[in-house]
Amino acid sequence: MASGGVTYKPKNKKRYTTHGFLERMSTAAGRNIIRNRRAKGRIKLSVSDEKKVLVKRMLKYKSTKGSK
């Protein structure tokens, strides 16, 4: 019996190229996804926006921490 090994090997580059903003905008169905997420008020429209959200949170945390 052969050992298959680990099935899930996550890679960020693959994730961005599959689920990122540019990939979504390249197809009509992807543009519909972005439009629906905007209409619902999502902060993160796609996987590519995760870094932007983290930076905003960090800046907000630093500004509130320093004012005390």
Account of the protein in words:
By secondary structure, the chain is mainly α. It is 63% helix and 0% strand. It has helices at residues 12-19, 21-25, 28-40, 50-66.
Brief descriptors of the model:
68 residues; Helix Hairpins; mainly alpha; 4 helices
Topology:
Blueprint: H1 12-19, H2 21-25, H3 28-40, H4 50-66
Which word captures the global form?
A: flat
Q: Which class do the helix and strand fractions yield? A: mainly alpha
Order of secondary-structure elements:
HHHH
- For the record, the CATH architecture stands as Orthogonal Bundle
Q: Looking at CATH, which topology would you report?
A: Helix Hairpins
Number of domains: 1
Number of strands: 0
How does the major sheet shape up? none
Strand content: under 5%
CATH class: Mainly Alpha
Computed Rg: 18 Å
Number of helices: 4
Quaternary organisation:
single chain
The average pLDDT score comes to: 88
Helix content: 55-70%
